[in-house]
Amino acid sequence: MKHPVIQSLLVLSTMSVILSASTLNGLIEYATKHSTVIKQSQSQVELAKFTRKQSSAQQYGEVNVVGDYTHYNIERTLAPLVPSSISSGSPITTSKDIFSAGLKYTAPLFTGFAQTRQVEIDKIATQMSQVKMKLGKEQLVYNIRSLYLSILAQKEIFSAQRSFTSALRKLTKQIRNEVSVGRKANIDLLKAKADLQAARTQEKILASNIETTKASLSALVGKRVKKISPVRIKVKKPHYSIDRLYTKATRLAKVKVEEMAEKKAEKMIAKSKASSLPQVNLAAYAGKNYGEDLATNNWDDETLWQVGVNVSYNLVDFGKRDIDTQKAKIAKMQAGFQKEQMLLDLKKLLIQGVEKVKQNYATYLGNVAGLHLSKKAQSIEQVRYDNDASTLNDLLLAKGKTWLAKAKVIESKYNYQKSTYYIDYLMERGIN
Predict the structure, then answer these.
(1) Residue 244: what pLDDT?
(2) Domain boundaries, the chain
(3) What is the pLDDT at residue 11?
(4) Residue 377: helix, strand or coil by DSSP?
(5) DSSP 63-106
(6) Helix, strand, or coil here: 340?
(7) Predicted local distance difference test score (pLDDT) of residue 84
(8) Which residues of the chain have pLDDT under 70?
(9) Given this model, what pLDDT does residue 367 score?
(10) Angle at the Cα of 115 (from 113 to 118), degrees rounded to 5?
């Protein structure tokens, strides 16, 4: 019986290991905030938002500081001459070198609704980028779950392999003792040693596979994953309805993206027709002209300002406008085809996913039954070998089949859980 203090230390040690291990939900929560995949999606959302703001800002025009210097071969006035300035009798400043500085404001008053349509297009693009980021998170969650389960499966198989190796080690020791007293032939010992060495090698391979999968999971999450906590898996008979799943799936984000693409294409068609309407722009200027008077050598200035509206209308563009409209219509047709194909693919994937769950469930039940029979066969072969009624090869073969059956049970259990996670991914249930 262990000392109470030792038992307490063992309990505390076990608890510390459990607490330090990463959980599946913890890794998902961390990844959805820090993964570079998500950060890239977030940057796309921000880029779309700024593009939308840029389109909105263009409606208000722009103010520029403008300046100019011109040298003339003959003197010029700082401001245009008008009858009132000529009749006033005041001296008029003239110069060959004239500088100007001021503010210029330009703004579109009417663009045939092109700018309005562009703002609407950018708004849809922003919404699409946000939905795509959600879909990216769903993909990330599914990938993390798959790798996480792969590690757990590999660890369980590794543990089974260690038990198998330990059993072979005990068998080898037993045969060595029996060879020393002449009950078994030396060839049995050589066979046992060979199988033991093969089992040890398999242990190293499995351990290496675990580390490799951990590295993949770490890269996906965005931090190093050392230890992971187990996941409770309950294998139960699947009861999925394809029609019910598909009905819900038609309202998912992946479908909304395609619908938004169609709306965006419609706005592009409307924008392409804007050039058939007049274009009206406002231009205003306020500033001063400076120059050195040739008569007095004194610097003088004149204040100038003006406001104007210009209108332009495209009479003939040799088919360019019609081509732009046709291109936009084709883009809308493509968006419609993509939506239709996406729905067809979605139904296909749902059918494949549900059937995969059913297959994995049946495989798991078959493997559990196979393991039960393998254990019985191994027990019988052990008794026969102990009574010299069978060879060592028969016993080793039975032990190997039992280990393989156990590995299949472990693998099929986790494959079942992966297939249910795949259904969650298709139905966008990975993110709460």
Answers:
(1) 94
(2) 21-58+111-278+313-426, 59-77+95-110+279-312
(3) 44
(4) helix
(5) EEEEEEEEEEEEEEESS---HHHHHT-----EEEEEEEEEEEEE
(6) helix
(7) 62
(8) 1-20, 83-89, 432
(9) 93
(10) 110
Counting beta carbons within 10 angstroms of the beta carbon of residue 167, is it exposed (0 to 12), middle (13 to 18) or buried (19 or more)? middle
Amino acid at 81: L
Alpha carbon separation from 205 to 89, 240, 300, 380 (Å, rounded): 106, 38, 91, 31
d(CA 105, CA 198): 83
What residues contact residue 405 under an 8 Å CB cut-off, 6+ apart? 367, 370, 371, 373, 374
User: 62-77 and 279-292: which strand pairing?
Assistant: unpaired
Q: How far apart are CA 144 and CA 23, in angstroms?
A: 11
pLDDT tens figures, 50-108: 999 988 998 899 999 999 999 999 988 888 877 666 655 577 888 899 999 999 999 99
CA dist., res. 377 & res. 371, Å (int)? 10
CATH of 21-58+111-278+313-426, one of 3.40.630.30, 1.20.120.1760, 3.90.1300.10, 1.20.1600.10: 1.20.1600.10
- Token readout for 169 is 């080690």
